[in-house]
């Protein structure tokens, strides 16, 4: 995509602080500085959503996420990593599939997804939700 900043980083047109890369995926530091060590992992080719991305490319992205997460814990002194990807026009900040990795330490006070406020309708019966979402 012509005006996509992530495509420009992936192609090398814009320099990013690269963490890891292979032929299909790239990890680099998020410049927003909202969390220490915030890393983004993207496919180098433009796909707006994970659902648009070919399975083999998506696997490379998620494999890189796993590799980096292990590195953060085993080599960098973190206790874990929060991993998130938005896949809708409602919440996606840039129109290029990407995964956020936020390194975490116990007691870092960044919050816990379990503490997020529940949206209206979130009290739907678990069995009803299961029936609606299951694929098997």
Beta-strand level of the residues, as a percent range? 15-25%
Helix count, per DSSP?
A: 3
Give start-end ranges of low-pLDDT stretches. Answer: none
- Write the H/E string, N to C: HEEEHEEH
Computed over alpha carbons, the radius of gyration is 17 Å
| CATH class category label | Alpha Beta
End-to-end gap? 36 Å
The global form is globular
- The whole-number mean of residue pLDDT values reads 88
Given helix and strand content, the structural type is alpha+beta
Number of strands: 5
* Total tally of structural domains: 1
Topology summary:
Blueprint: H1 5-11, E1 18-21, E2 25-29, E3 39-43, H2 55-75, E4 80-84, E5 99-104, H3 126-133
Antiparallel strand pairs: 1-2, 2-3, 3-5, 4-5
Description:
This is HIT domain-containing protein. This protein is of the alpha+beta class. The protein has a single domain, classed as HIT-like (HIT family, subunit A, 2-Layer Sandwich), CATH 3.30.428.10. It is built from three helices and five strands; from the N terminus they run H-E-E-E-H-E-E-H. It has a five-stranded antiparallel beta sheet with strand order 1-2-3-5-4, with helices on one face. Strand 1 and strand 2 form a beta hairpin. The longest helix has 21 residues. It is globular and about 50 Å long.
